[in-house]
Every structure is written in C-alpha cells, then in structure tokens.
Amino acid sequence: QSCFETCGVAPPPGGIVAELSLPLTFFDIRWIHHHPVGSVLFYNHPCSKPYFLETLVPKLKESLSLTLKHYLPIAGNLLYPLITTEKKPVFRFISGDSVSLTIAESENDNFDELVTNHARDADQFYDFMPNMPPIKDETEYKILHVMAIQVTLFPGRGICVGFTNHHSLGDGSSIVGFMHAWASVNKLGESFLTEKGDSLPIFDRSVIQDPLGIDAIFWKSMREIPLKSSQSFALPTNRVRASYTLNQADIKRLKDFVLTKKPGLVQVSSFVITASYVWACLVKSEREKVDEEVMEYFVFSVDVRARMNPPVPFNYFGNCLGYGMARIERKWLVEEEGFVTAVEAIVEDIKNRVNDKDEVLKGAENWLSEMKELGEIRVLGVAGSPKFDLHDADFGWGRAKKVESLSIDVDKYSMSLYKSVEGGLEIGLSLPKERMEAFAAIFDDGLIKVSQMTTNVTC
Known about the structure:
Blueprint: E1 2-9, E2 19-23, H1 26-29, E3 37-44, H2 49-68, H3 72-75, E4 77-81, E5 90-94, E6 99-105, H4 111-114, E7 120-121, E8 136-137, E9 141-145, E10 147-154, E11 158-165, H5 172-188, H6 191-194, H7 214-222, E12 240-246, H8 248-261, H9 270-284, E13 295-303, E14 321-329, H10 330-333, H11 338-354, H12 367-374, E15 378-383, E16 402-405, E17 414-419, E18 425-431, H13 433-458
Parallel strand pairs: 6-10, 13-15, 15-17
Antiparallel strand pairs: 1-6, 2-5, 3-11, 3-16, 4-5, 4-9, 7-12, 8-9, 10-11, 12-18, 13-14, 17-18
Helix pairs in contact: 2-5, 8-9, 8-13, 9-11, 9-13
C-alpha cells in the first residue's frame, strides 16, 4: 500500500482546557503492560482517489478534531514514570497534543476477499492498522501515545478505518463510544454531540471508589515489569482468521437442545449459548494429545459500571471491567454434549458472581495474580461485546461491511463477538490453519446434528 500522509489531528484550540491530567484507577493500571488493542472497519463506499483526498479526508480530519474536543485524553499521552517507586503513571493532555492519523491507499484489489467470512491469512490485515508513534522521553517520564488511526482507500471499492489504542486508555464501552461519536459527527455534524450533553463522556476518576487502595497494590506489582520499548504488533502471526455466524434460528435450536437436557437452567442468553458452543468446538478441534483431566477455562470481561457501589455513570470514559470465569475438566467438554456442560458452567458463574453486586468485585486485589496464572493455562477469552458494536459506526457510508478485531491474533486464544446483520451473532477467530479447518468442520457438523435432534423432538 502507499501512504499519502501521516499527520497529527488536534482538538480545535478554542473552548478547551489548556491541560488535563487524570490518574489511572486500578481498572486502568491492570492493563498498563497489555499489548495494544485495535480493530479495522471495512465500508462499502466506492469512490475515486481525487474525491477521497479532496472531499472525504478533509471532512474526516475536521470531524475527528471536533470529536476530540469532547475526548481530550485520546489526543493526550500516557506518562510512565522513569522512577516507578516515586511516581505513578498518569494520563495528560496539554494544548497542542494530537492523535496520529495516517491516510493511505491499498495497492491490492482484495477488498472483497478481506470482507468475506472464510479463512484468510491474518497478517494482511495489518496493512490497514496504524503504527503507534514511538515512545518519547521527558525528564521524569516516558511519553506514550494512547491511540493512532489510519484511513485506507480501496479505489472504486471501499474504505477501511483502522485504529489501535493502549488498553489502559479505556474499555470497549469507551473506545467504541468514541468511534461512534466520531462517525456521527462526520455524518451529522458536531451538533449531534452537543445535543446529547447527558451522554457526553465524563472523566472524573473520583466516581471509582477504591477504599482498599487496590491501585497501589496493582502498581506495586506492575512497576516491577519493564515497559515495552515498542507498542507494535508482532508479525508474522502464523494464523488465519475466519468468521462464523449463529443466526437467531441456530441460537434458538441450540438453546432448545440445552433446555431439553437441563430444563431447570435460567438466564441462558444468546451470549451464553454462543460462547459455550464455540468453547466446546474449539477444545474438540485440538488434534494434539492432551491430558483429559486438564482444566479448560473460559474468561469474559464484564462491564461493572452499573454493578459498582455506588454505580458508575454509564458514560464514564476509562476502564471499568471485572471478569467472569468458567472452568471445566477437558474430558467433559470433548464429550458429544460438552456444549451443554459449558452452558451450565458459564450460567453458574454469571448467576453467582457476575450478577451479584457483592461478589463481582470481591477479591479484586488478587486479579493480577489470577490473570498471571491464566496466562499459563488453557483459556479461551472474548474480545469485544455485542453491546458495543463497531459495525454501527456510520461515517455517512452506511454500516460497516466487516469488522475485524486484530487483538485476537495475540491471545491464545480469543474470539471476537459482534451482532450479525441477520440478527444473530458473528464470531471471529484467529487460529493456526489446520486448527481452523478442524474447528470449522466441528462447528458445522454440530449445528447439523442439533438441527436434526430438535426437528425430531418437535415432530
């Protein structure tokens, strides 16, 4: 691909504070050494190179600038102290700070290939992901950019908007909210935001109560880890990525199948059905010899804004995530009805911990050590949430044709979850090629079997 320019886009100079400084809460600190996260959004929007450069790009820059006025930390930096025993990291925006924006053109005529669901080489998507600017040194801090954006033209075919961000900047609710805001300002003008004053982001860290001083506990642990010298993704991934859809009829059949086996189960949501089915299929797809007594884990993030005491406003910008976790011995998951066992385990965790305000943050001071253990065991995670869907970020070009979460290339293993156009859920996976082929066969075969079983029951 060819790059037209890389520039900094700053908030407009009038009407913003000269400096904004935000401490990191314990929700933010836990992600300080996490790999960058990011996504690429593909839009069907045929246009010429002159129209793209002379009309669309200036409008995108202007709308990004206007949006940043309401999202100053995104234009700012993460300050990481050189002497970690004396200072803590902090987010800082000062007048003149900006977000890095790259404008590029794809030289490959592969737009239609990129937006399909079948397995494709994962590395090619990084052409549309911006590089985070290099880390700089100040007297007392290392200066890290927290977000970078790239807009790529496929001449006569479409546009890709890619972004990467530091996870400590914000969770899915916050980052997706920003992308929706930028898209809406580009489509409708800044009045779209100013008329929604009650839902503009708030950055007040005092809404996060931390009576146990968990931020100090987390920082004491995290400061022992050296800061990475680069915020780039590691290539090659040696993986392919593919998407699978469970439409509403699939989800209903799977749910009916579960309830015939376990009629007393409640709160069997579309998320639970989808996550359980993918988890069971993924474990079954492993061809290497594995001890049947080994524990398999499923971990998912939980937005705890409404579960905090007192509740945190829904428009709080930052991280506010707890997590849920189900665990099952491998031998039960690989059975023909392992999917049902997975549903039981996830429902149990949601009922007893995730939906219990007294339990969801219990033991939060131990999260770092628990997460470290998870890095050494067999776990499937989830990136993204159908509640915060990037497909709906409409820049005036309609709904995104395809969204790919590139973060799942790094984890071993994660799936992305989005709402599908048909009303069900779209699952994204990144796996070695042979594992993906095995997964696809098991996924399709399982749906056929459940369809036959539920059809026989209704007959």
